[in-house]
Amino acid sequence: MLIKLFLFFILNIKLFVIVWCSEKNATGNEGQLIFAHVLFRHGDRTPVDPYPTDPWRDLKYWPTGWGQLTNTGKKQHYELGQWLRKRYTNLISKTYSRNEIFIRSTDVDRTLMSALADLSGLYPPTEKDIWNPDVNWQPIPVHTIPEVNDAILAAKKPCPAYDYALKKLKTSEEYTEINKKLKPIYNYLTKNSGKNVNTMTGCQYIYGCLKIEQLYNKTLPEWTSKVYPEPLATISARAFITNTYTPQLARLKFGPLLKEMLTRFQDKFNRNLDPDRKLWIYSAHDTTVSGFLNTLNLFELHNPPYTACVLVELRVINKEPFVSIFYKNTTAEPIAMNIPNCGQLCPLDEMFKIYEPVLPVNWESECRLSMLQMSYVDVEIKSTIGVAGISILLILSLLAIIIAVLLYKRHSNYHDDKWYYRIDG
Ligand SMILES: *[C@@H]1O[C@H](CO)[C@@H](O)[C@H](O)[C@H]1NC(C)=O
Ligand SMILES: *[C@@H]1O[C@H](CO)[C@@H](O)[C@H](O)[C@H]1NC(C)=O
Ligand SMILES: *[C@@H]1O[C@H](CO)[C@@H](O)[C@H](O)[C@H]1NC(C)=O
């Protein structure tokens, strides 16, 4: 009887601890950290493509070439690597092992180089890793795949359903209204930059270029003082959420990345991960960091700076798996994010439930777009279209299907080619 009472008491304490832990703020010190995903933006770079009237549009000012990582950028990532070494000192060994860590980058010079610079801070050779006493560096593999095949990190693998939904958003009432309000700024930029600007993304492009030139102490043309930094900084920040503005867009754009992380957590916790790794690094862009955070509903409008870094960590607390997300966008310690309706330590099962709307079940098939699906989406989104609209859409769909079938018959060889391409990816 006493033993039973005692057991009852212990079990309740355990329950209490679980509940209490899930509500308390994450400091990064609770439970046992067993896996971390790190997603970061590259470091300092040169402008990608200056606007036509830019006085600094000449490679003599940017000898490393357009869109390239600079020495400052290398240093920034080296320092982030050192910081990661400190944070994960108990998670990964001091010496490199492929069974502990995997690094993936988008297939872009500056992200590949950032990953390598980061790794030189994370794994300075010690003990058995020392291969040349004159070189305080060791080679560590960084994996990538061509962007056009990359549905996970670059998120640029073609997805017709996504393109269609994005186009719809951009012509929606809300976006038309925003663009109408910004029209005077678009006109001003078009007139002065020599580039036709008619979207928020167009503004973001010019903002990014001016910001880099300012960082490099280049005198900006007089006309820019009217729009830089504001309102361009705010418009640029707003442009970051367009790609993931609706759950459908988020699901098709960064859903695969989120699903990959959560599934990997599950495998890790269930001891199904092989090799049984502990750290996974993704080297990518400001659009990746902002889009991923926005997919999680955790993005506050801002322009993610160089080396902005999202940490998605798995901890075991009383034998249960918990997820924490931290955002590090300064040199200070990272900010613990409050996962919607779950807090800073969220049970892994809950993560799957909370984010179900943005986790694709079968991305490839969800990306397919038939004309019939199209009209269905149209009807769903715009109930105001009404019955007449539905009929017109159905007729249009039928016509489109007939045309599609005819085209298919004419171009069946071409179709085979495409199919082969996809398998290849
Ligand atoms: C948790 O963090 C929030 C801000 O993120 C703060 O307002 C709150 O007081 C913290 N709670 C505890 C228990 O530390
Ligand atoms: C720009 O000027 C500031 C202040 O004089 C200086 O600290 C900084 O190093 C300069 N930046 C570059 C890239 O030359
Ligand atoms: C850093 O991130 C926080 C939280 O998203 C945001 O509010 C802030 O503006 C960001 N600051 C910088 C410098 O990026």
Number of helices, where a helix is a run of at least 4 consecutive DSSP H or I residues: 15
CATH superfamily: Phosphoglycerate mutase-like
Largest sheet: 7 strands, mixed
Structural class: alpha/beta
* Principal-axis shape: globular
What radius of gyration results from the CA coordinates? 25 Å
Overall domain count:
1
Helix content range of the residues, please? 40-55%
According to CATH, the fold-level topology is Rossmann fold
Low-confidence segments, ≥5 residues, pLDDT <50?
5-22, 379-387, 412-425
CATH top level class name: Alpha Beta
Sketch the topology as an H/E string, one letter per element.
HEHEHHHHHHHEHEEEEHHHHH
Mean pLDDT: 88
End-to-end distance, in Å? 64 Å
> What portion of the residues fall into strands of 2 or more residues?
5-15%
CATH architecture descriptor text: 3-Layer(aba) Sandwich
Number of extended strands: 7
Oligomer description: single chain
Transmembrane segments: 385-408
Enzyme class: hydrolase
Catalytic activity: a phosphate monoester + H2O = an alcohol + phosphate
GO molecular function: acid phosphatase activity
